[in-house]
Amino acid sequence: MRLREILQQKGRSVVGIGADRTVLEAARTLVEHGIGSLVVQDDGHLLGIITERDILRLTARSVPLEETLVRTAMTVDVVTTTPDAELQATMTTMTERRIRHLPVLSEDGGLEGLVSIGDLLNACRVEAEAENTHLREYIQGAG
Ligand code: AMP
């Protein structure tokens, strides 16, 4: 299965935040949407990504979230992927790089969507269930 298929099922909407908003606003946006990451864009250009883990790290150091800008807390070297990427290969990338969120970009750099490790695990589960059903039907048919 390719990411294109997963995005068709989960939808292409990606929640973002401006680089000059505070990390407290980012935390509130994450909670409001029940998600774990926000992309940071400027004029359609991907500037960075900020996740719950980045915010937790600041909190552990008692950094005041209301005085800290997203641009200083986000990761700027964003790892991205494409709609053609395969599910298994993408899971490997995320596991190896220890990231749980991956923006999906088209060839011209436009944001096509975002997949989380949870989305990919769910897709794996659906794929495994379909395979099980086929195998069961095959065995019953052969018997
Ligand atoms: P996560 O596991 O997604 O919460 O992210 C763990 C760390 O990796 C955080 O510092 C994130 O900012 C960073 N991170 C998450 N996703 C990406 C990504 N696609 N590219 C680069 N860094 C990322």
Task: Give me a quick take on this structure.
The protein is of the alpha+beta class and 143 residues long. It is 48% helix and 18% strand. The model has no long low-confidence stretch (mean pLDDT 95).
List its salient traits.
143 residues, alpha+beta, two-stranded antiparallel ribbon, 6 helices, binds adenosine monophosphate
Structural notes for this entry:
The model has no long low-confidence stretch (mean pLDDT 95). The chain is an alpha+beta fold. The strands form 2 sheets. The protein has a 3-stranded mixed β-sheet with strand order 1-2-3. The protein has 6 helices and 5 strands, in the order αβαββαααββα. It is elongated, with a radius of gyration of 18 Å.
Task: Itemize the secondary structure elements and their pairings.
Layout: H1 3-10, E1 16-17, H2 23-33, E2 37-42, E3 45-51, H3 52-60, H4 70-73, H5 87-97, E4 101-105, E5 111-116, H6 117-142
